[in-house]
Amino acid sequence: MENQDRYKELLHPGLPMERRKENIQELAKDERYENKLFVLKGGKWSWEDEAKILITRGYPKVKDILPEMFIWLQDMNWPGSDEIVEFLSNLPREIMIENLEIVTKKAKTENDIGWLYWLREFMEKNKLNIDDFNDKEVYRILSSSTDM
Asked: Does the CA dihedral 45-7-81-15 come out positive or negative?
């Protein structure tokens, strides 16, 4: 609980931007804070800062939460979404695809049409085709998400 309180204090929206930038760097380096603490956990006002923390930590340090990072793609209007898309797009291709397959199945199970739409956009942005996927059904799901 102490870490979570400190985290909220460091990303408080009332802080000057320069101080928040310093705090983002501090939080990114501090391994006492688990990665999952920065996946859309604070108020919407902190989501962009949370994205920056995870991006600063980088791959492979955030490997344990890559599927959760795709949650930002549920709504591309969410703060931090654009930055997360760029980060995920620059992962090693096989890692990106593996995690895209995981979250596509989750989005399909949850019948989250909006998320499937943005996942399809992500697939297209990264010029993925059926041959790139280990699970060809995932490609079919994403390709047909325009019909939903």
From this structure: positive
* DSSP assignments along 79-123, one per residue: TTHHHHHHHHHTS-HHHHHHHHHHHHHHHHHTT-HHHHHHHHHHH
4's CB contacts (< 8 A; 6+ apart) are 37
50: left (phi over 0), alpha (psi -120 to 50) or beta: alpha
Q: Prior bond to 60 cis, omega within 30?
A: yes
Please state, in angstroms and as integers, the Cα–Cα distance from residue 67 to each residue in 22, 82, 96, 102, following that order.
27, 16, 9, 7
Integer CA distances (angstroms), 13 to 71, 107, 109, 132, in order? 22, 31, 35, 41
What distance in Å separates the CA atoms of residue 134 and residue 112, rounded to the nearest whole number? Answer: 22
**Would you say 50 and 84 are in contact if contact means Cβ atoms under 8 Å apart?**
no
pLDDT value of residue 146: 66
Q: What is the pTM of this model?
A: 0.93
